[in-house]
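Ticket #4471: complex job returned nothing on first submit. Input attached below:
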Amino acid sequence: MRFSPTRDLTCTAHKTTASPAGIVLLLLAGCILSTAVLAETPSGKASRSRATSSQRSRYRSEKVLPQVTAINRYIREAWEEEGIEPSEAATDGEWCRRLFLDVIGRIPSVDELDRFVGDRSPDKRSRLVDELLGEKYLDEYTRNATTLWTNLLIGRSGGTERRSLTNRAGMQQYLRESLKANKPYDRLAYELLSAKGNNKPGEPGFNGAVNFLTMKLAEDAVLATSRTSEIFLGIRVQCTQCHDHPFNNWKQDQFWKMNSFFRQAVALRRFGGGRDIQNVELDNQDFGGEGTTPEEAEIYFEPRDRILTVAYPEFTDVDGTVHQIERSGYIDEVDRRTEFAKLVIKSGYLPQAMVNRTWSHFMGYGFSKPVNDMGPHNPASHPELLERLASDFKESGFDIKELIRWIVLSEPYALSSRFGEANRRDDPTLGETPMFSRFYLRQMRAEELYESLLVATDAHKTRGTPEKEEEAKQRWLRQFVIAFGTDENDETTTFDGTIPQTLMMFNGDLVKRATSTDKGSFLYRIATDDRIRATQKIDYLYRAALARSPTAKEHRLMKKVLGKRPGETTAIRDVWWVLLNTNEFILNH
Amino acid sequence: MAQRNRNRRMSRRHFAEHLMGAAAMAVPAIAFTNSLTANAATLKKNERSAILLWMSGGPATIDIWDLKPNSVNGGPFQPINTSGEGQISEHMPETAKLMKHLSIVRSMSTREADHNRGRYYMHTGYVPNPTIEHPSYGSVVAHELGPLRESLDIPPFVSIGGGSAGPGFLGMTYAPFVVNSNGRIQDLDMGIEPQRAANRLELLDSLEERFIKQDRGIAASEHAKVLKKTQALMTSKQMDAFKVEQETSQMRERYGNSNFGRGCLMARRLVEAGVPFVEVDFGGWDTHSNNFDTLQNNRLPQLDQGMSALVADLAERGMLENTAIVWMGEFGRTPNINGNTGRDHWARSWSVVAGGAGFQGGKVIGKTNEDGTAVETDPYTSEDLMATTLAALGISLDSRFTSRSGRPMKIANGGRVIKGLLQQA
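Support reply: We reran it on our side without changes. The output follows.
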């Protein structure tokens, strides 16, 4: 039987008694039990594990959150049903690197890594998680979360289009403030959907949240409808614009009924006297309807059978409950967008969509694939778990950091990416349903690469202002974005493991800077420090790039490269260049 | 017990049972590779290339290739005679002179009228499916024709302007090499002496190997494959093919001073260098409003100039008989003109154009009704167009791929050849 520290702990923690003393006793018993087991059980196959057992996790949380227990239980039950066994646990270094990337969007520095790996306390993992979600890393967490949300809400190219109605800086300012304060998710959703005001920072009435919708209202707000649906409800409804959904039970009229909620919204362009748009005001105005009665402001749509059909604002929740509001188009009688926002945040869709997306971010895949296309046509792989997490997320007051905490402290998140003996079938790249019995490899995002290179070369210590840094980063990132320029506002990235990306990593400016040996640079300091032996330098570079020490064989290989003169600058530079270009570096594993 | 939903419908075993035709199951394993038989067909394949002109956004083909001047759906454009059978838009005068080299298929009828789905479908011949990523035209052609050109350092599938679809289960080796139309490939030079570069790459290779051996998933080995391709590229003289500026100014003016024009010129150069598949992206066709103004004053002049220059240039150089040209978008646009003088998405009846290698020129295949709302003859799909194009390139339609999960897949999703479009048909 494969050893897994968390498995033992979970069993004991499950049996909670009323008295605190009882709990302590149980935990103590569990501690003794698992320590005993630790001492006896070998950790993984000798031929495979490069890490010594001291590098493997001996962690044990003092308090195991019930949601973590639930995740572990449901996931493990599913393994048992499928007859697969999980891979071994990831090493401390692997887990630490993974956590830093997924939570704050960069790899750990050597200091951070060493501190964590060298820490012998049993609750070090939950403490590191608390740190990354706490005050100490607040700015970094915020920057990363802002990037993720901005890309989700307006795309990487949002705000850069010709005649754009989106102010990217305004969007980011709003998100930065909200995420920094860990604003509850339902509040965030409500604000993004119902926001009014000016989209540009510094203007009177500035409200950055409007930038979500300002560029999605053209052509009867079709894009606003479909994006809102994808992001906040987790359902893809684009095709129901023209016909009933071929797979799920969404009907064409439901699309247009939802669309009706957006019809009072207008994006008013303000020109500064020239031809360029200076800023945009998002407001709600009277909507007369497409007929003749603003008191019952209807819209029309044309189904396949070509009989013009009417639609009024109506929202159907995930359980089938239908919510209607007054039909008036007059803004002082009914503010449709605000009513819609209220319905969305109370709906059953909201928590489950967010749980699915967040799970997907950390675990590589959601419970349904694609992440924003949930429904009976695309059944969840672990429906009970999804339901449980959605419910707890709601109960927590939609606390995003809490949700993150549950996921990253779970057993599946702590597994190695290596295949085990009995989970070869768990390979989503072959189209199999993910069982989360191993960590799934994925490439760093372009933003993560950028930040990781900064920290790997200590350049993060001498950053400019957040705005200037952001600007420089955006300029570098833009080379990878291809916007399609259609009414769906779609885009794709060429940072996808292809040749141009490799050329950039081989020869581009960013890596040239990261491998610079100019005086004062990271490599220069290491190369010229005669107090450190060559082997130590190599070890340091490995920890900086790959969060591990080199193997004996790698040491020998690298020493040959460094030649007779250890620390020679050129050689060090080559070693560093190589490390940064490996699959091991660029892949989150 | 926990009720979960494993995607049982899509499990390997189950799917295999549903494969079209028991023949697929009966064929022994050896036939499930793309083994190339040495015969005349191979020689033909070895010379041929394809250029896909991709009109991103869904072009209003009813205003370009299949005009309806007698219908209320016709709009203001008038048809003009061409050197081929059919009439086309008055705003494509140069292309009209060359229509003897190109044929129009007016009977396309597909079902995907959403940009994303439409793009995927028209590029792969398959409808999007969550469990599998299908390879696009370029990747398929690169896979079939690329290995025949061993001395080609340039990636066999070049996408000028991006916006194509990926290689899916064929893997990163056949991913589109995306460049923009100014031809500048960024970051080609490592900037150090060759010996030192070689040492670096050797060291890199051994580290990559180690990680791959740790058996963590395919991404690790895909990375290594791409590295090798990149290395070959960096040192190759063939990369000059991208340098459009090496052409005379007359030639560049002939194609037009637009991204699309430059892209077409680059495509010709790349095909000359032996690249089997080049896709040229031309966007801005999503004319939900202001359709006629946009087409007449913006899109069509560029299209006309670039496309006609390409066809004429290839013909003059004797390259047209070996270069297949396909023109298409995600779908067409509604015959009905909307309240914003625009046309909306419409997949029920629309046109594509094909010519060059293997294709008949000058023909009109199929027809739509008086007001353009329905196809009156045999309707054709993406798979059909794909099958016809592959056949024009000499690629056998009996070829099968094996997806990574072991599932055999027909090369053009079982599409049939469009009648009258191929030369020997």
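The CA atoms of residues 266 and 283 of chain A lie 5 Å apart. Closing as resolved unless it happens again.
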